Protein: Molybdenum cofactor biosynthesis protein B
Amino acid sequence: MEQKTFIKVTCSILTISDTRNLETDTSGKLIQSLLEAAGHQVITRVIVPDDAPRIKQEMDKLAANGSFCLITNGGTGIAKRDVTYEALFATIQQEIPGFGEIFRMLSYEEVGSRAMVSRAFAGFSKSGLLIFALPGSSNASRLATEKLIIPELPHLIAERQK
Structure:
């Protein structure tokens, strides 16, 4: 088995919600605590409403602040107000399709066929920022962070630097 080298990754968390604030943002807090417990650095956690231009604007700001990884939560469903996919997927230069596929497979084991409506995705933006777009529920955020992001984050950053 290949030995994995740990790389401490600088991350930002962007919660997309019309109703949450920093105190009530349980998913953003959870993602932050899981990343920090795994040895990564979270330099900022921000909340922005479900508004495509504002989401894109905040992503650009966070990309400029020195983050290598941006994890969003919220707005990946199919409700009319869910615009995270539309706002951010167009910025992806190199998609990691397996992330969304495996996330939906793992979600299916927990929530059944409802998992198919998630538009969770991951990839590298044109500026080189690694983006993970997660659903807003704490269960989905925990699942993606623990099972997929934390185990592969150092590897993804190392591979991208080659």
Remarks:
- The two ends are 21 Å apart (CA to CA).
